[in-house]
Structure formats: C-alpha cells, structure tokens
Amino acid sequence: MTIETTFDRLTEEEKYEHFLNRIDAGEKIEPNDWMPDDYRQSLIRLISMHGISEIMGALPEKEWVPKAPSLHRKLAIMAKVQDEMGHGQLLLRVAEDLMEPLGKNREDIMQDLFSGRLKFHNVFHMKAPTWGDAGIIAWLVDGAAIISQSMMLNSSYGPYARALKRICAEEVFHAQHGESIIMALAEGTPEQRELLQDSLNRWWTALLMFFGPKAKENASTSHVDKNMRYKIREKTNEELRQEFFTKYVPRIWSLGLTIPDETIHFDEEQGLWVYQDPDWSEFKQIVTGNGPQSKERLELREVSYENNRWVREALNPTAKAI
Amino acid sequence: MTQDKALVELLYSLADDDFILAYRGSEWLGLAPHIEEDVAYSSINQDMMGHATRLYRILEELGEGKADEISHLRKPEQFRNAILLEERNGEGTYLEKPDFDWAFAVVRNYFYTVHKKIRMESLRKSSYEPLKDTALKVSIELQYHLMHWDMWFKQLMTSTDEAKRRMTSAIERCWIEMNGVLSLGPMADEMTSKGYVASEEDMREKWLTHMKKTFEEINAPFPKRLAMSKGNGRQGEHTEDLKTALQTLSEVYETNPTAGW
To answer: How high is the mean pLDDT of chain A?
Structure first.
C-alpha cells in the first residue's frame, strides 16, 4: 500500500491535523498537496492581491519613466518598473495554480480587479505628481515592501516563499535606486530639496497605512491571525510598521527632512515608536477604490485591456474566463 | 569639435532612432497586451535606450556636448531620427485614455529591427573603431529583439481576420514612411566613401530581400513601392509628434540642466 492511498483514507479532521503538523514542523506545502479550503482561500486572497498590486504599482512610476531627468535615470527606472511587472507575473502564476482547482484563471483575476472585488495596495491609489514622488516610491514604498515581504520568506506555502526570495532580492536594488534619486535631490538645489520634502509630506500617511491597521482596531485583521496560524506570515501589521520606523525615520532625519508628524519619537520605556495614527476610515475608502487616483489608474488598465482584446483573441481564440 | 560632419550626422541618426523608438516603447509600459509581453517589451526598450546612450557618449567624446544635454536639450530640427519612429503610438497619451495600436507597435518595431540588424552588420566592419565596438555589443542583444518581433509579426499575420486587417493597415502605414528609416540623409555618399557604413542602396536591397522572404513565408501580398511621405528626419524634418515627445522626455531635466539629478 502506498503512502498516498493511506492518506486518502484519513478523515477530513485527520488530514487537517496532519497538515497543521507539517507546517508546524516547518515543512513547505506544495500546489498539489492536500490543504484546507481556508488555507487555499487565504493564499489566493493574499497572493493575487500582492500580484495585482505589483502590476498596478507599475502605473504611478511608469508616469515618470519617459520623464526621468537623465539617460542614466531613464535606464534605471525602466529596469525598475520592468522588475515590478515581472514580480506581478511571477505572483499571478502562483495564484493561478491555486485557483485552478476552483476553475478560475487569470482572466478572472483581471475581471475581479476591474469590478473592484480584487483590491490593490493603498499606496498605488495615490497621485505621483512630481519626480520627487518617483524617488519616494522607490525608496520608501519599496523599503516598506521589503519589510512586509521579508517576513513571509519562510511562508509555509513553498511557491510563494520561493517567489518572494527573488522578489526581495530585486526590491533591495529598487530601494537603492530610490535612495540614489533621494540623495541627489537632498544634496541639490533649494528647489530640489523642496520637491523632495513635498513628496515626503504627500506620501507619509500612505506609508503608515501601507502596513494595515493595528490588530484590535479593525475586524479584517482576523485574516492576519489566520495567516499567522498557517505560518503564511510571521508578524503583525504593527510590528512591521515599527520595523519600518526603526529603519527609515533616522535616515529621513539625517537627510535634514521633516516628517509631517510632530509627535513621532522613540519611547525608550516602551521600546516603541510613538506616532500619529492615520485616519483608518480614509484607508478603507482608498482600498475600496475611492482613493485620489483609484479611478484613473483602474481606467488606464481597463482601457488598455479592452484595446488589446483583439490581440489576446488572435493569440488564443478560445481563452476566456471560465 | 570634430570636423567630420558625416560621422557626427551618422551617429546622431543611429542614436536618435533608438532614443525615440525606446521612448515610444516606454509609453507602452503597463499597457501591453499581456503581462508577459509587458516584461519582454520593456526589456527591449531598455536595451534600445542603452544603445542610444552608448552612441550619445561617443558623440560626447567627439565634443558634441554632454550625453544628457544632447539627448534632452536639442531642438526638434536638430534630431536626425526617421519620422516613422517618432509617430505617436495611437490616440490619447500614455497617461490618459491611451488608444494605442499594438499592430502598429509590432510592424514598426519589426521593420525597424530588421533594418537595424542589417545596419549593425555593416557597422561591425566600420572604419570608425568606436562604432565597430558598439555594433558588436548591440548585435548580441539585437538577435533577441528580432526573434521577438519576427514571432509577433508572423503570428498576428496568420491568425484571426481582425488581426490580419489591423496588421495590413499598420503595414501600409509603415511602408509609406519606411524610406525615411532606410535613408542615410544628405551626407550618405560621404558616410559610405569613408567606410563608416555600407551604402544606403545596399542596405535597402538587403531589407527588401528579408521582407520578401517574410511575406512569402506567411503568404501575404508584398506591398508596393516604399516611400517617405512626411519628410526626411535625417535632414531635420519632423512632425508635431517629435516636438511633444521631446517636451515629455526633457520635462524634469529642463527645469535645471546644471543641477545634479
């Protein structure tokens, strides 16, 4: 008798217990392994949101690709945005494998994006009106992304952990590219410094929101608890935000920039950063598609998706949402 | 400044062709027909922007000014790219309501890349050493660009009726401007007699031969005479499309060209 047939004879509860034992022992779950439905659903939600955020994230930066202010910067930002698209592709492939048994494919992901069912990261709903924003996005948004993604490098789901390994390595280059833009502006003319300070002011709240609300303040963070139990992620939203402060607040200050929150400081007693909480009802508005630039970005993607329908049909006349 | 105007003109036409077409390509970023193509097309555009950068650096060494300056601050009439390469991707802009035409993107890139390959093969034997070195490096990457556009061209030309119709119309549009790409401009004879590059006629023949083979392979009617309808970019003739492109390309740099960016 093979191991496989033995496993098939187990009850659902026994399978579930076996699954928990595996992830507790640090084993990786692979696409064809047995997994509980809510684990699959959690992964689909997380990974498709992550993947589509990479793709939507290309749009604010793409605005600055042709305008980058030198040949060197043009080349660097082209490479950077291409990487983001590549991450999106990699992650959607992982999500597609998980969705296959449910009879869904990439077309469904795109349609869910257009209908608003599938959300993308709050930061990519924001406007990016100056070159300073291109710098802040690459330095601090990517910096925040490295922090939140690194905690999933040990994710119990093998394909996600492996994709993240590559993604994080590339994000480090992006943050360096961003830092280099920031340094040039910070050491530049008074106008350039002002441009940079304006961008920081514009992005600060969005950066705080990036990590999501604290556990007790928002019911939707029950996903966080579940994802931690399933060892998809290792840290809470607030732990990640604190890590971000520890890494970046001193660097921001050392550039002579002002953080638009007079209260922010490190409290030695608590061993924590104290800061002004963003308005979480605004966060909800943003991620549900009512942010400053949500409609325009979605429209851009939808218009191009529709314009190119004939191409996709020409490549594969039978492909459509299942 | 170098006295060799023919060489400088040739370098500008090579650099500007890649610079402008890479720009048009970068406008497609995030808007390509599928995500995989977005990644691939973007990689090609980076290569082309890299080729342009190498060529602008050669011009910098020849005393034409800093590479960033000559790429970002020249006036439209000082650009030497072919008009076909500066034309907009379609209606709308890359930021708002882009009604971009993928058939035009495929045909323009395919036609250009075939010519670029022929041109680079000739430049590998150039009497001007820096061009010879550049041509060798460019040729390696170019091989992949050609495979990419060749595949798209043939695939769309042999698929649905709608694809064929759109491709045929893009071919007509590119064909009547293609002579501008194949042109070496007013100093063609000097460029060739000094051994910098093969003759215009020779390269045009090679391009036509390549195209005839392609069209035969996919069983498509070969278009009639090549033309250059809107003017010759090699002598500084351009359209409004180049003007707006350059405004976008230099928008930030122009605010303070002496600052560090």
So the answer is: 93
Q: What is the pLDDT of residues A190-214, one digit of tens each?
A: 999 999 999 999 999 999 999 999 8
A70 vs B38, B96, B253: nearest CB? B253
Instruction: Point out the residues of chain B with pLDDT beneath 50.
Output: none
CATH 1.20.1260.10 correct for A37-107+126-260: yes
- Under DSSP, is residue B100 helix (H, G, I), strand (E, B) or coil? strand
Torsion sign over Cα A105, A106, A107, A108: positive
Chain A residues in contact with B259 by the CB 8 A cut-off are 188-189, 192
Q: Over the stretch A229-261, which tens digit does the pLDDT of each residue have?
A: 999 999 999 999 999 999 999 999 999 999 999
- The C-alpha of B204 sits at a distance from chain A's nearest C-alpha, in angstroms, of 30
- Gap between the Cα atoms of B134 and B116, Å rounded: 13
**What span, in angstroms and rounded, lies between the C-alpha atoms of B31 and B122?**
35
Whole-angstrom distance, CA of residue A279 vs CA of residue A101? 39
- Distance of residue B82 Cα from the nearest chain A Cα, in angstroms: 19
Detail the DSSP E strand segments found in A131-286: 265-267, 272-274
Establish, for the pair of chains A and B, how many residue pairs have beta carbons separated by less than 8 Å. Answer: 137
Whether the predicted pLDDT of A157 surpasses 60? yes
CATH code, B5-255: 1.20.1260.10
Cross-chain CB nearest to A312 (options B29, B33, B255): B33
Mean predicted confidence (pLDDT) in A165-182:
94
Q: What is the pLDDT of residues A55-99, one digit of tens each?
A: 999 999 999 999 999 999 999 999 999 999 999 999 999 999 999
Q: What is the pLDDT of residue A322?
A: 46
B-chain residue closest to A295, CA distance? B96
Nearest beta carbon to residue B68 from set A62, A70, A79: A70
Residue A9 CB burial class (10 angstroms; 0-12, 13-18, ≥19):
exposed
Q: Does B97 touch chain A (CB under 8 A)?
A: yes
Q: Where are the domains of chain A?
A: 37-107+126-260
How high is the ipTM of this complex? 0.95
Of B55, B51, B108, residue with least CA distance to B83? B108
Q: Does A88 touch chain B (CB under 8 A)?
A: yes
- Is B20 at the interface with chain A, CB within 8 A? no
Is A318 in the B-facing interface, judged by CB distances under 8 Å?
no
Parse chain B into domains and list their residue ranges.
Answer: 5-255
A265 DSSP β-pair partners: A274
